[in-house]
Please model this.
Amino acid sequence: MLRLGFLASHTGSNMQAIIDACTAGTLAAEPCVVVSNNSQSGALARARQANIAAYHLSAQTHGEALGGAILAALQRHRAEVICLAGYMKRLGAEVLTAYEGRILNIHPSLLPKFGGQGMYGMRVHEAVLAAGEQESGATVHLVDEEYDQGRVLAQEKVPVKAGDAPETLQKRVLAVEHRLYAATLVRIAAGKIPIPLPHCRA
Ligand code: GRF
Model:
């Protein structure tokens, strides 16, 4: 079983979709730890509801020691792959180095379009509509030190419809995100997307 760690800042609906896929048995993985910088996040509430170890770790709680504290939590629970799911903070070098090639993120556009610093949440969908795009979509990619620039693992298109508001487009894209993130992890768990897993798997 692939052991999954999550970092999330807000609602955690993508994380929930992955947890649900594990519970349903469609994804052979075990969610083992959730870290959030936001003590009030839906993600932490969902983790507790699902009996997954949950930690509130932020610059406020840990200051300079934050990166090490996040890494310690992930390693304590033997997370093998890290899923960013609406995590609004830049990852520290500690986690990036220890989990290089094993950190995934989902972004609500067809990267490299509409990605990068400041492109998050509703801003992405507003920019897509302002640019007059005919289609948008969702992207699962590997995470490195640059925002939204790691290797693309999976992408799915979503049509932009006449009369779309940012909110309607967001809803259509989010439904695809939920499916795409779990499906990508299924391919990773099955070895169809090779990533460097630790050699000492339990
Ligand atoms: C999603 O749109 C995801 O693509 C982006 O942040 C949002 C998180 O939503 N990175 P949720 O917390 O999973 O509901």
The chain has a mean pLDDT of 95. The chain has two domains: 1-100, 106-195. Residues 8, 10-14, 85-86, 106-108, 174, 177 surround 5-O-phosphono-beta-D-ribofuranosylamine (CB under 6 Å).
